[in-house]
Structure formats: C-alpha cells, structure tokens
Amino acid sequence: METFNILMFIEYPPFDKRAGGGQVVSWNTMKGLAERGHNIDVIIGRSSEELPEIPGVNFHIIPPFIGRRPLDIKFATLWWKKSLEFKDVDIIHGFRPEMVIANFYWKEIKNKTVIHEIHFPQLYPYSLRDLVREKYLFSHKAIRWSMYLHFDKYASMFSTKTITPSEYSKDKMVDIYKISTDKIIVIPNGVDKSVLKISKNRSLTHDSINLLFIGRLDPQKGVDILLYSFQEISNKYPSMYRHIKLTIIGDGPLRNQYEKLARRLDVIRNVKFLGRISQEEKQKYLAESDLLIVPSRSESFPLVVLEGMGAGLPVIGTSVGGISEQITDGETGVLIQPEDTKALANAIIKLLNAPEDMKRMGIAGRKRVEENFTWEKRVEKIEKVYKNENLIRA
C-alpha cells in the first residue's frame, strides 16, 4: 500500500475543554491515517497538557490556539512558519480557516497537495447584503463571523481539494463561496467501532424512560427548545411525564441559563445536567437511554446522531443541515421541523407509545452506521483523495 508523509494542522485535541465535533473528526482522522501506515507530523497548539503517544504520529507543539476572530493571525502565521521546517511532505491537511497562509504557500508556491476541510454548520451571514438584511451591521460578532467565512473561502481556494461531511454543506459552499463543485468532496464523519458494540439489553417500560441529549450548550444546539417541549409533555401527559428522566450531557456558555430555564419551567426535578464527561461515561449513558434527541437549529453532519444510531437508539432530530442525510424519517428515527416545541413533544410521546417501532429504528440505525459511517470508512475515502491528487501531480 502506498504511504504518504502527511503534515496536519490541528488547533487542539478532543480532550481540550473547548473541543467539539470538529476536533473529534480531526483527531480520529489523524489516528486512522497513522494506523494505516502513513507518517504523520502534527502541528498543534498546546500549553502544558501532555499529548498521548500515538504510533506513526509526531506532535510539534506551538503556543496555544486562541481563536480570535475574524482570524487568529498570530496562530495562522505560527502554523505556516512551523511548517517551513518540513521538507519531505506529500500532503498538507488541515481543518480551519487559519490554514489560509500555509495553504497558499504549500499549494501556490511549493505545488503540494493541500486538503482543506470545512465543517461549519452554517455559512451565514456571509455577504454585506446578509448583514444588511439581518440588521447585523452594528453586531461585531456577526461582522467578525462574516470576515472569518471569507478567510475560510480563501483557504479553500488555496487548496487542491476541499472536504466537507454532507451534501448540504457542499451545496452551501458552491452557492455562497462560489467554489467549483468539482473541487469539493463529500466524506461523512464517522464513529468509533466501540459505539457499535454497546449492548442494548434494556427494554422500554413506561415506569422508567430515559431521554438523552449530548452536545454543546449554546444557541445552535436548541436545548431551550427541548426544555420547552419537556414542559409541554409535563402539561399534556402528566402520568407518563412522572416516569421520564432527561439527561443533558455537555457544557457551554448557556449552561447556567438553561438550568435556570429548567427551574422556571418546573421540570428541573426530571432533568439532570452532567456537563462534560469521558467517552466511556458517555457510552454508558447511550447504553442506558431509550431515545436520543437532537433539537438543533443548524448543523453540518453532527457526530452525536451517528453515535446515537450506532448505539442502537432511535433518534429524533430536526431537519436542518446534514441531519436529514443521517436520519431516514420513520426508518432510523424521526425528523421534525426546527424550533417547533409542540412537534418535538408529540414526536417523543408518539415514539414512547410505540416500543416496537423504537426497537426497529434502533436496529436499522445501527446497521446504517456500521455500513456507512465508521472512522475506518472515512479514512479509506481520504486515502483515495490523496492517491488521486498525487497521481495527477506525478
């Protein structure tokens, strides 16, 4: 098998408190490529925390990633300057707009294969017209995000190929960034095979019902929608509500606000906020839950949906972004419109009253993930991109 010398850029590992799905994707892609025999050098921003030893991977530490938008110019420059130390490189591969300087250097000057990945849930607001339409002209946050997306566009323009996890994201990039469809390759995210081995020997009974949410506690993920839906259930179905427990795994800027909301809605007794937990603990909750809920306002191709399906759980998700490419409505879960608290409450109750449908969906979901969405399958597809591009350049 042909092997490559790969230089990767990762801002921080998945066990960093700021990490989300993008960091999990970059880390597992790196590990998967190393396991297949490729030689990998990783430039990564860290302070004092040690990094694990991974066969085939050499870490090169630079000062911590800060993430100051519209672009962390200092970090982007450090990435590029550190990359100049590497002479025998076949592939450059990174996951953030901060790659823009390195991408330009390695593709336009050194004529190397450069892979850029985009995992943003939305590319909006992007243009001045967007900012005017949404009355964001005096929103520093919106303006910084718009500028950040422009850097992301140029990072993609200075790449050989751009990888994104969903057809939804590809369509948005073609429409908004005006990038050629031939340059964008859809390679879905994956899950660890250990998720597929989670034993679902728990049977649903109305005496004990466990609902699960996993994700960052910010506006995008829609925890407030879930809590309002939970109140709807408590009002309309009080006898069933008494036996339902909702576990919320994850942390973020709105955690305190959501805990206060749960108290105000008088559902806090049935809700447990766990914060960040280990992967082993998360798998324990996946095994002990009956239903995973993903009430997001925007997404690209969320890992949590794949984890829930892989663990044999039926999933209720909103029909935003790439979620509709993961969940087949009525087959592996249920799709609802975003922001619709009543529809979410009704979907939860309807499924809980149909345990055979839940079991069928869980089996179908696990099979779908096993056949299509593992890290191994993702890495194999990335290898094909490497080989094709290197053949073109040979």
List the helices and strands and how they pair.
Elements lengths: L4 E6 L10 H15 L3 E7 L11 E6 L10 H11 L7 E4 L5 H10 L3 E5 L10 H6 L6 H18 L3 E4 L2 H11 L6 E3 L6 H4 L12 E6 L8 H14 L1 H4 L2 E6 L5 H10 L6 E5 L3 H10 L2 E4 L8 H8 L4 E4 L4 H4 L6 E4 L4 H12 L2 H18 L2 H19 L1
Parallel strand pairs: 1-2, 1-4, 2-3, 4-5, 5-6, 6-7, 8-9, 8-11, 9-10, 11-12, 12-13
What does this protein structure show overall?
A seven-stranded parallel sheet has the order 3-2-1-4-5-6-7, sandwiched between helices. Strands 10-9-8-11-12-13 form a six-stranded parallel sheet, sandwiched between helices. Helix 8 (about 225-235) crosses helix 14 and helix 12 crosses helix 15 (about 355-370). The protein is of the alpha/beta class and about 400 residues long. The protein contains 16 helices and 13 strands. It has two domains: about 5-190 and about 375-394, Rossmann fold; about 195-370, Rossmann fold. The protein has helices spanning about 20-35, 75-85, 100-110, 130-135, 140-155, 165-175, 195, 225-235, 240, 255-265, 280-290, 305-310, 325, 340-350, 355-370, 375-394; strands spanning about 5-10, 40-45, 55-60, 90-95, 115, 160-165, 185, 210-215, 245-250, 270-275, 290-295, 315-320, 335.
Q: How far from one another are the termini?
A: 17 Å
Rg for CA atoms: 22 Å
CATH architecture of the largest domain: 3-Layer(aba) Sandwich
- Arithmetic mean of pLDDT: 93
Helical segment count: 16
Return the structural class: alpha/beta
Unreliable runs: none
Strand content: 15-25%
Shape: globular
Q: Total number of β-strand segments?
A: 13
Largest beta sheet: strand ordering = 3-2-1-4-5-6-7
Integer tally of domains: 2
CATH T-level topology of the largest domain: Rossmann fold
